[in-house]
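Supplementary Note 2. Why include the ligand at all?

Several targets in our set were suspected to adopt different conformations when bound, so apo predictions alone were not considered sufficient. For every target with a known small-molecule partner we therefore ran a joint prediction. The input for aspartic acid is given below.
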Amino acid sequence: MAYSLMIHGGAGAIRAPERFSGSLKHIVEAGADMLASGAGALDAVARCVSMLEDDPLYNAGCGAVLNADGAAYCDASIMDGRDLSAGAVAGVRGPRNPVLLARLVMEKTPHVFMVGAGAERLGREHGLVFENEAYFATPERLAQLARAKARHETSLDHAATAHGKLGTVGAVARDQAGNLAAATSTGGLVNQMSGRVGDSPVIGAGVYADNASCAISCTGVGEQFLRTALARTAAFFVESQGMDAEAAAREAVAYLVRRVDGSGGLIVVDRNGRCGAARSTPGLLMASARDGRITVGDAGPPAA
Ligand code: ASP
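The joint prediction is reproduced in token form.
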């Protein structure tokens, strides 16, 4: 079976999208090489999201934005479409790769969702790499927080104005055995209240994978994706209404806009390996690989 892989680096009004092209291409190629040599979808999405987390260009891992207290708290999730197993973490400080901590929750505990100190302890016990505060509080992130505070706003990572751009990352894949997986990781919103959690670590909102339908990763204003259970809604369109990835992505964004005037986008790989993406924002940073063909680009015009 042919493999399919998509990654995203956030949605919004993206200044100079060409800044991201080299990184997106490099990361999607790394994931595609894995899938081409027989790796599973779960390993490929974990690897791609880890690489996105290691790149300061994105709002996840080392590039995570700072909350109102000037601290980086990360959220991440991963889901295996073979049996709907899933793992997620929220409000964790310090792990270099929050997506790997989410995977530990899935594989090493009987739980799905862990937060804060308990989740961090799990990571330490399993030898995950942790970083200190200086790793996250880069001069760029401190300046961004100062701007948001001066405007009294809670904003998305790349915002020129509030909700201008979201920098969360994600990956979805189908491997050569036909198995699907998805992962999402974020630092949340710039200047968000301490304790706020968005959609990214919530199964069915910011992430979903089911071999019976599709794999999805979302980016956008988390509250709107939570209220519409957007990832599960997109899967429903594939599973129950027979849509392919592209139609389901478009319908999901149309629903997001219609019901909550939502801002963001999503990437989808369906059970037949088709790739789709849609957004209501001016841009969505993304790249895809389908059986050796690499595409780095946008998701077409925003849905009405
Ligand atoms: N969805 C993320 C959140 O609300 C933000 C983003 O996509 O950039 O936490």
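The pocket of aspartic acid is lined by residues 10, 59, 156-157, 166-168, 186, 188-189, 198-200, 206, 219-222 (CB under 6 Å). Residues 160-165 have pLDDT under 50 and may be disordered. Comparable summaries for the other entries are listed in the accompanying table.
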